[in-house]
Design a protein that fits this description.
The chain is α/β, with parallel strands linked by helices. It has two domains: 10-34, no CATH class; 59-386, TIM Barrel, CATH 3.20.20.300. The chain is built from 16 helices and eight strands. Strands 7-6-5-4-3-2-1-8 form an eight-stranded parallel β-sheet. Strand 2 (91-94), helix 6 and strand 3 form a beta-alpha-beta unit. The radius of gyration is 28 Å and the shape is globular. The relative contact order is 0.11.
Length: 389
């Protein structure tokens, strides 16, 4: 050891390397214990993503196309509701004709219709309160009573409403109107949560907060019906705003609701020609704005697609073509309030599925666009098993 202490640093290092780091050139010192490498931290497994990926790997293009649909089947018999779900669609929308006399009866009806315990169907309803509601046992205040009240009243009201929906078997509410207008003559005036963007945004966020953890929340009707005079049930209303005017006004309640955690945004059949002449439900540009500018990464659902065919415009007369255009533009879930005889509306599930599948085969709808939409919808459904959060 005395010899090594007298060596220069460089010489000692060279000897150490030549001797395999044994400590001395003669190897008389014991070797140090080998250094243990740190055990890497395993990447957390997302059980929802894992399930969805596995399920999608076994789905055909046709099954994926069907998963983009949400339908209405009239009546109190669970068999037609179940038959819709047996076709592979992802959800049901309940209307007044599906509502029995009491919450437990509706819960039983919905339960009898479900077909897949691992991937429950989305069960939606328009339960805003006030002018638009389906459940006679919902006595919670609606928008007109909430607008003049503090935002906390909106949180309380939507929390109470969410509990009513949950007890009734409903897991998704199309109930938060993010439109804003100060025009008392607007067809949507009685349904807005504020007459200016700031007040509306505050109450929209409060409504999302109230529903959070109980039912999925939906903001409607993007990009904002209040600025577009007319009723989209019978026309394609047009808003005169520029994109900058939209950002400074109608965008605010949607942004507030998205930031509060809304799981869905519903696109409206309305146009802002300065941004895109197409109705938002068919507009790639509005879907881009929703994703890229507002940062929404949840499910984009259309308003009732049959409304497009009811406006009398020839370019929207083909329901299958409308479905293809909606998916291609960025919609994830297509809503259809079907009549008792869907054929009377010139529509069928097979026709919609066939049209979407053919558009994927031709490249008109990229496979990645279809898969992205299916992944979002199935993730929402699987969260019903893991727990709404």
């Amino acid at each position: 050891m005395r010899t090594r202490l007298l060596l220069g640093t460089a010489a000692a290092l060279a000897i150490s390397l030549l001797s395999g780091c044994s400590g001395t050139a003669t190897g008389t010192e014991s070797k140090p214990s080998p250094t243990r490498s740190a055990t890497p931290t395993p990447t957390p497994v997302d059980p929802v993503a894992e399930f969805v990926s596995s399920r999608m790997s076994h789905m055909s293009v046709e099954q994926k196309a069907a998963a983009l649909l949400m339908l209405h089947a009239p009546g109190l018999d669970p068999a037609p509701l179940r038959a819709s779900l047996d076709q592979g669609v992802s959800g049901l929308i309940l209307m007044g004709d599906n509502v029995p006399a009491a919450p437990d009866q509706l819960d039983a009806l919905v339960g009898a219709a479900q077909v897949d315990a691992e991937l429950p169907a989305l069960v939606a309803i328009d339960e805003e309160g006030g002018d638009v509601q389906r459940l006679p046992w919902d006595t919670v205040p609606g928008a007109e009573a909430l607008v003049p009240a503090p935002p906390r009243s909106t949180t309380d009201a939507f929390a109470a409403r969410a509990a009513i929906l949950d007890a009734s078997g409903v897991n998704l509410n199309f109930g938060i109107v993010a439109d804003v207008t100060a025009d008392p003559d607007s067809f949507i005036a009685s349904r807005v949560l504020g007459t200016d963007p700031a007040a509306s945004g505050e109450r929209v966020a409060a409504a999302v907060s109230g529903e959070h953890g109980t039912v999925f929340s939906t903001l409607k009707h993007f990009p904002g019906h209040g600025a577009a005079p007319g009723d989209s049930h019978s026309s394609v209303p047009s808003a005169p705003l520029t994109i900058d005017e939209w950002r400074a006004g109608p965008a605010i309640p949607f942004q507030e609701g998205i930031d509060a955690g809304a799981e869905l945004v519903m696109t409206g059949h309305l146009a802002y020609p300065a941004v895109d002449a197409l109705p938002a439900s068919l507009s790639p540009e509005w879907h881009r704005i929703l994703r890229d500018e507002l940062g929404f990464d949840g499910v984009v659902v259309t308003d009732d697609m049959l409304m497009l065919g009811d406006n009398g415009l020839p370019e929207y007369a083909d329901p299958n073509e409308n479905a293809v255009r909606a998916v291609a533009s960025g919609a994830d879930l297509l809503l259809y309030v079907l009549p008792a005889d869907p054929a009377s509306a010139g529509i069928s599930v097979d026709g919609l599925v066939g049209a979407i599948s053919a558009a994927v085969s031709s490249g008109r709808i990229p496979q990645a666009r279809l898969d992205d939409a299916v992944e979002r919808v199935l993730t929402l459904r699987r969260n019903l098993v893991e727990g709404i959060s």
